# Entry
Amino acid sequence: MYVGRFVVVAPGIGGYRVSSRSFPNRRVRDRGGTLTVGPTADAPETDNPYVSYNCARAVETPTEEPLAVLGNGSHVDPVAEKLERGYPARDALASALLALDYEKDDYDTPRVAGVVGAESATIGTVRRDALLVEAVEEPTVVATYETDSPEPYDLTATDAEPVATELLGADLEHPVCAAGATVDADGVSLAFDNGGD
# Structure
């Protein structure tokens, strides 16, 4: 089954996977507390604005609460910025997703995102027909296709790097790369898996 890009979050843990039929030549890179999806050196040139973006960011709220933001596009940054200004996770997700809306490509691709705290998690998506944001207590997934509403996900990994590896290895079509995040009282850990690169 092809579900496209997807986010999985639960309290203390989360992940994001790129699955792509059109742009497989992409990798995650660490840019000092931010994980960025972008094309490889040998990728065909494209003017598609949805190919490169920050997919995971570590943030700290005004009350010094560490949080991780994960998502499939340029909305990750405004979600993070709102959290840093003290917005609750629900409001940060809802306002950023509503403002940027679904992607205006040939597929009306939904935007998906999640916010992970040490004791909390919130997941959201904006599709052509809906804006959904939910607080969750167990691992929950939302994807750009097929699974475009939040539903339970069987996540077994407990650390950032194994989460990325588990998501990349999930039995879903066209895996490209993945990111993982864990959050505890000491802060946020981010990791990625580019499939052996």
User: Anything to note?
Assistant: Helices lie at 76-84, 89-100, 160-168.
